[in-house]
Design a protein that fits this description.
Elements (H helix, E strand, L loop, with lengths): L1 E5 L2 E6 L19 H4 L2 H7 L3 H12 L12 H4 L7 E2 L4 H11 L3 E5 L5 E6 H4 L3 E4 L2 E5 L4 H4 L4 E4 L5 H11 L3 E5 L5 E6 H10 L8
Parallel strand pairs: 3-4
Antiparallel strand pairs: 1-2, 1-8, 4-5, 6-7, 9-10
């Protein structure tokens, strides 16, 4: 189950398949392969080439009784409690929070503790200029001025493979985890997903 939160509050709650109906979250068209640009005839001509035969051979080689592997939920891999910043925080303060916590993005909460966005180092660096660890110049901006909103949140029982799909489709590096009441309970980053994949060899993402 996914939800979308903006400055005005919850915008959407439902499955991943219908989330693209939220207009601000319309996914960016995926880049087409070079072959596709040459026309359908060229694409059709590439079918049946060695790469397709190699994939087919690999799948035939797999044992039919190979288990899919354990299913991981967001609640099992998330960082809790999540490190957050406030929408009213100065960008310099938010940058220092991320730096000191050794993270690259953080959920943004309003004065009432509601999830309203997400902010990354990249966002913050549009308003500050740093030299090493020192801030040498800053614009008088708050986090709300540079954060990304609306933001996609997921329930703790969401399959991490679906969370990975959201990261890829919407170009984000992390997904806030919210409970049924819409309160932030954790955060799943790309690193958390990768750690879940590499620490348990039985986990199979291909099949």
């Amino acid at each position: 189950m996914f939800s979308v939160y903006g400055i005005s509050g919850p915008i959407y709650r439902g499955p991943l398949e219908t989330m693209d109906r939220v207009r601000p979250l319309a996914r960016t068209p995926a880049a087409q392969a070079v072959a596709a640009e040459a026309g359908d005839a060229t694409v059709a001509a590439t079918r049946g080439r060695p790469v397709d035969e190699a994939v087919r051979a690999y799948r035939e080689m797999l044992h039919s009784d190979l288990e899919r592997g354990p299913l991981y939920h967001a609640g099992q891999v998330m960082r809790a409690p999540a490190i957050t910043v406030a929408a009213d925080d100065a960008v310099v303060h938010a940058w220092r929070v991320l730096r000191d916590s050794r993270i690259h993005q953080a959920p943004v909460l309003d004065a009432a503790g509601n999830l309203v966005g997400i902010v990354s180092e990249r966002d913050l660096l549009t308003a500050i200029d740093i030299d090493g660890e020192q801030v040498i110049e800053t614009l008088q901006r708050q986090v709300r001025d540079v954060m990304t909103t609306p933001v996609v949140g997921a329930a703790p029982v969401t399959d991490i493979r679906r969370i990975a799909a959201v990261m890829l489709d919407h170009g984000v590096d992390g997904v806030p985890i919210v409970n049924d009441a819409g309160r932030l309970v954790g955060f799943v980053s790309r690193g958390d997903v990768l750690r879940a994949v590499v620490t348990d060899p039985p986990l199979s993402l291909w099949r």
